[in-house]
Amino acid sequence: MTTTSIPRHRRKFRFNFAYIFLTFGSLISLLPFVWMILSSFKTLREVRQIPPTLFPEEFTLDNYDKVLTDEDLPLGIFYRNSAIVALANVVQVLFTSSLFGYIFAKFDFKGKRALFWFILSLMMIPQQITMIPGYLILAKLGLINNLLALIIPAGIDAFGIFLFRQFAHSIPNELLDAARVDGASEFQIYGRVVLPQLGPALATFGMLTFMFNWNAYLWPLIVLTEKNVRTLPIILTWFSNQMVDKTNLTMAASVLVILPVLFVFLLVQRWIVEGITLSGMKG
Amino acid sequence: MTKSVRFFWRRAFRGRDAAKKRFLAGTISPLVLYMAFWTLFPLVWGLALAFFDYSPRRAGGFLGFGGGNPFVGLQHFQNMMDFSSGAALEVQQFHIGIKMTIVFAALVVPLNMLVTLPLAFMIESVHKRLRGLFRTIFFLPVLAPSVGVAIMWGFIFHPQRGLLNAIIGKFAGKLIGINWLGDPNIVIGGIPIALFAIVIAYIWQDLGYNMVIFIAALQAIPDNIKDAAKIDGANRWQMFTRIIVPLMSPTIMLAVVLTMISAFQVFDIIQVMTDGGPNDQTQVLLLNIYNYAFRYQKMGWAAAVSIVMFLLVISVSLVQTRLLRTEWEY
Predict the structure, then answer these.
(1) CATH code of domain B82-325
(2) Which residues in chain A are contacts of B289 at CB distance < 8 A?
(3) B282: pLDDT strictly greater than 90
(4) CB–CB of B259/B108 below 8 Å?
(5) Average pLDDT of chain B?
């Protein structure tokens, strides 16, 4: 018998107990989603049944019909609100993080150390301590119940600046000086030389920022109190409170709010995972 | 350098220093102004609020201070130390808040590690084709909004229609009506059952973070170390406890700190699932701050509570920066 070594990746399936644990764990992990989806196809009578059923005995699409035609719940508007806020914040945060990350990595100026130290210390300060005055400022500016309340104060991400500074360090100075010799302005150097070098980091950090903004709850809850300016997470809790006992409708609304974007996030999962492992960042 | 080359450089860079200065002035000064207005100013204002009996409903002088919102000094902080049974409601709720926030973190952190470390190790041990699938399944809840997670789990824990009681009922052979999120009388080891229910939902959503961090750390462990252990006859369990966990200890420490910080700041899932109930049993600090600042408009008191919360978080954050600064080597 020959015992040539097989390359690790082509090794045959070798059973171990991990498969049992992981399969069982996967079922538990997926169960809440499955339960939500199955319940959204049940009739009101069936969700009220004791004990409950897992699979719908009487499969119905009525719940979706009701949620989508509910005049109190114009989902299109809330999708649009969430998209405006998330996209605007991704664009501005990527711009400021890459620009100032680059500047802190490659330039010297008076007060640089103090400013950078201040930004670093911001990373440790929980957002909650500026929550109350932040609200009062926005109230004074008349921006409560305006989507701008979620965008204007979110212009700087201390962590983003810190992250992009690390990346910008690895850009060779020769590249920048060559562009200077060629007569490029400093802004052109940032836009045409530095930004392309930061490409992968921009994708990773952009996805992460989008996800956090899309799923944000506390701050939107505070500054958006009128119904039609709200974003998806707050409208979902509002709807579920309205529908106290009609769980089938709440579940249909949850499916419509959660699943489409969950699917998109799944497609770009690679970048999100990369971003988390890179930074250890949490929502 | 010859004279002509030096001349060339000087020509090429003439005006460059001025251009750099303009560039810096044009970018750094807006940054400083922006940060002064949107971070430094709110920070100072927030600190100041804690020393006033402030409510946005009442009129006052500059920034609403004075007038109807008098300066009270350290009164809020003194009140916090009132542990007598006759303490004001807000003080009693604050005590619950501190206690529940710490209990919540103390439950979440070890349970999370206990699940995610073996999970990452197991996922790395299965066939390559299946790794991506398993990782995606366990990572999925991270991508979902926490509000949706809370609604899903709230329904699972429903006393009559919920999935959990139905499953338990199947095994027990009778109807089970445990009110997981609403019964204040079921307390295990001093911890209300609603908090356990929330911990389960929270960990279900949160474990993907640490899982991917641990998977990355596992992949960074050099193969020769693992191979050497295998040649020495180590089995999987020994490999895990004697080789993998010690080598990953810096990553584990960091994950512990990050998990703890975010557990201290838990809000979404609790606000939606129980809103602090039953009987304030699950009213964690941030929920407490939110209620007093934005529901009851007692912002001075809420600001004082947020300073306490800030101290709690910052003390753990300082440990984190220590860890980040240390260089680790295999």
Answers:
(1) 1.10.3720.10
(2) 128, 131
(3) yes
(4) yes
(5) 88
DSSP 3-state of B192: strand
Domains of chain A from N-terminus onward: 76-225 (1.10.3720.10)
User: Considering only alpha carbons, which residue of chain B is nearest residue A260?
Assistant: B144
How near does any CA of chain A get to the CA of B193, in Å?
20
DSSP state of B188: E
**Surface of B (213-252) touching A: CB under 8 A:** 213, 215-216, 236
Q: What is the pLDDT of residues B40-79, one digit of tens each?
A: 999 999 999 999 999 888 877 778 787 788 889 899 999 9
User: Helix H segments across B144-192?
Assistant: 146-156, 163-172
Contact indicator for B314, A125 with CB cutoff of 8 Å: yes
Structure tokens at A183: 């007569």
Whole-structure pTM value: 0.90
Rounded to an integer, what distance in angstroms lies between the CA atom of residue B18 and that of residue B313? 44
Pairwise CA distance, residues A239 & A75, whole Å: 11
DSSP state of B279: T
Tokens standing for B310?
């800030």
Q: Which two structure tokens, joined as six digits, stand for A257?
A: 């709010």
Contacts of A25 in chain B (CB under 8 A): 119, 138
Q: Confirm if A107 and B31 have CB atoms less than 8 A apart.
A: no
The H-or-E segment that residue B191 falls in is strand B191-192
Tell me the pLDDT tens digit for each residue of B97-127.
999 999 999 999 999 999 999 999 899 888 8
Note the ipTM here: 0.89
Say if residues A100 and A136 touch (Cβ distance below 8 Å).
no
Confidence of residue A128 (pLDDT cuts 50, 70, 90): confident
Residues A31-64 as b/e (b if ≥16 CB within 10 A, e otherwise) read: bbbebbbbbbbbbeebbeeebbeeebeeeeeebb
Tell if the CB–CB gap between A49 and B290 is shorter than 8 Å.
no
Q: In the prediction, which pLDDT does B14 show?
A: 61
The number of angstroms, rounded, from the C-alpha of B64 to the middle of its chain's C-alpha atoms is 32
Residue B326, Cβ density class (10 Å: 0-12 exposed, 13-18 middle, ≥19 buried): exposed
What does A132-191 look like in DSSP terms, one character per residue?
A: HHHHHHHHHTT-TTSTHHHHGGGS--HHHHHHHHHHHHTS-HHHHHHHHHTT--HHHIII
Any A CB within 8 A of B134 CB: yes
Rounded mean pLDDT of A75-87? 94
- The residues spanned by each domain of chain B are 3-40, 82-325
3-state SS, residue B52: strand
